[in-house]
Amino acid sequence: MGDGGLQMNIQELEVIGQYRLPVMVIVMNNHALGLIRDVHEKYYNSRYVGSVEGFSMPELKHLADAYHLDYYLADTEGSFGEIAARIPCERPCLVEVVLDGSTYVRPELLGNDGLDRQYPYTDK
Ligand SMILES: Cc1ncc(C[n+]2csc(CCOP(=O)(O)OP(=O)(O)O)c2C)c(N)n1
Ligand SMILES: [Mg+2]
After folding, report:
1. I need a surface site. Which of 13, 58, 97, 98 has the fewest CB within 10 A?
2. Which residues have a beta carbon within 5 Å of ligand 2, which is an ion?
């Protein structure tokens, strides 16, 4: 999930920790509400109020500690696979994947398009 979305459902981390569920929570951290940033860029003259400017969240390592989840950091390109491969599957954990702040959310649903037609379009 994203770093913003995590904060909207953060109570679920307690359920995972409390029952020691074998769940790997992968957080794609782009330090932004990326989808909203896209909207701000496209329709609001790149005024990133609340999506980037002023957006803030706690350090994920501390969150993982507080909820009793193991913590792993993938902060270099390509490191996720190597890190994930050595995580013990039976233990609850949180993996932080650090993304570039300008990562775009793609593919994307535009206008009234159906789920089977997402941008960038592959047909003409
Ligand atoms: C409860 C709720 N509030 C607000 C929204 C609107 N919303 C859609 S995407 C988004 C940003 C999500 O940010 P993040 O989870 O960091 O994902 P990113 O787009 O950065 O990959 C928001 C706020 C929503 N979908 N649900
Ligand atoms: Mg985000």
Report:
1. 58
2. 2-4, 30, 32, 34
